[in-house]
Amino acid sequence: MDALIVIAFLLVLPQAWSTIIQVPESGTYSVGSNILLKCITREENINIIWKDLEKDTIIFIGKGKYTKKEKYRNFEISSSPRNYSLIINDASPTDEGFYSCQDGDIHRNAWLTIEVLPTLTLCVNKSTVNASKPITLTTGNTVVVICKAQNIGPNVFLELKYGSGGWMKPKHSQQDSNDKPTCKVEVIHNQIQCICDANPPVKQYKIFVDGEDKGNSKSVQARHYVPANFSCLAVNDIGVGQSEVRYVSKFQGKEYFKTLCIKT
Ligand SMILES: *[C@@H]1O[C@H](CO)[C@@H](O)[C@H](O)[C@H]1NC(C)=O
Ligand SMILES: *[C@@H]1O[C@H](CO)[C@@H](O)[C@H](O)[C@H]1NC(C)=O
Ligand SMILES: *[C@@H]1O[C@H](CO)[C@@H](O)[C@H](O)[C@H]1NC(C)=O
Ligand SMILES: *[C@@H]1O[C@H](CO)[C@@H](O)[C@H](O)[C@H]1NC(C)=O
After folding, report:
1. 114 CA distance to ligand 2 middle (Å)
2. Is there a smaller number of Cβ atoms within 10 Å at the N or the C end of the chain?
3. Distance between Cα 142 and ligand 3 center (Å)
4. Is any atom of ligand 1 closer than 6 Å to the C-beta of 109?
5. Is residue 134 within 6 Å of ligand 2 at its C-beta?
6. Which residue CA neighbors atom 3 of ligand 2 most closely?
7. Which of 120, 122, 128, 130 best tests ligand 2's pocket when mutated (most atoms within 8 Å of CB)?
8. Cα–Cα distance measured from residue 253 to residue 82, given in angstroms and rounded to the nearest whole number
């Protein structure tokens, strides 16, 4: 029973000592927004520290900017008394991270997510159109409307509005997901090839023969290596996709025949 009381006391004590009375909150913000991370103290406290935990960088001590790094040029601290709130102006994706307002051992942390809105392009029958203008369709015709979204961001979907009716979902719609490549090793003629599904497209391939890197190539000549274990990887803007290992036991390409001319 005594032990319980002691433990409870230790847990509660630092709270009581902390002069921080309003704490920062985690949140999601759009690129370009001005973000306020609250840190308000009971009395003036020149020992308050703002830290970027991911970069292990002290940004402010008291009201003074501590870091000289260019990255934090858009960071300010509130000028009003007892108000040590951090202001991040014109937030960019690089400002995403884990920030901490600290008073000695008391750390009040907040995770900031910066959302990038995608750039949208609308295409009708393969040509780009002005999305603010209505599209004229003829009854009975098939029209292909594509909504392309560039950049990472929240989900994007396509809706149609017909005349003065409400918004509706298209009858058939297909979403090409942006993902890292999915790859497999194929034997095509006398080549071992890395075949990948990728959107956005592959920027770089690599082939491995028995685990050994054979360079930035999409294919290798089978007859130089077989029998062997082949695998490959491909890189796109999202990440790296790796194939499974495929054992190729014999050379499956065409053999070369010598043509003999026999005089009779
Ligand atoms: C603290 O400072 C920020 C930025 O100047 C301001 O928006 C906020 O209202 C202030 N909060 C208090 C409680 O004074
Ligand atoms: C698209 O159409 C809107 C409305 O008609 C117009 O204000 C805008 O300038 C157009 N944009 C382009 C890129 O043509
Ligand atoms: C799109 O193409 C289809 C078939 O090629 C055609 O019937 C239709 O009129 C076109 N629609 C527009 C808006 O250009
Ligand atoms: C291919 O991999 C298998 C399983 O790891 C191994 O048993 C075999 O010896 C390898 N073959 C060659 C030709 O390296």
Report:
1. 29
2. C
3. 6
4. no
5. no
6. 132
7. 130
8. 78
Segments in the chain below pLDDT 70: 1-18, 149-157, 173-177, 251-264
For atom 10 of ligand 1, the residue with the nearest CA is 83
pLDDT of residue 14: 46
Substitution candidate for ligand 3 out of 125, 128, 139 with most atoms within 8 A of CB: 125
CA of 171 to the centre of ligand 3 (A): 17
What pLDDT does residue 174 have?
67
Q: Can you give the pLDDT at residue 150?
A: 65
- What is residue 32's predicted lDDT score, i.e. its pLDDT? 92
> If you take atom 4 of ligand 3, which residue's CA is the nearest one?
142
Output the 3-class SS for the chain: CHHHHHHHHHHHHHHHHCCEEECCCCEEEECCCCEEECCEECCCCCCCEEEECCCCEEEEECCEECCCCHHHCCEEECCCCCECCEEECCCCHHHCEEEEEEECCEEEEEEEEEECCCEEEEEECCEEECCCCCCCCCCCCCCCEEEEEECCCCCCCCCEECCCCCEECCCCCCCCCCEEEEEEEEEECCEEEEEEEEECCCCEEEEEECCEECCCCCEEEHHHCCCEEEEEEEECCCCEEECCCEEECCCCCCCCCCCCCCCC
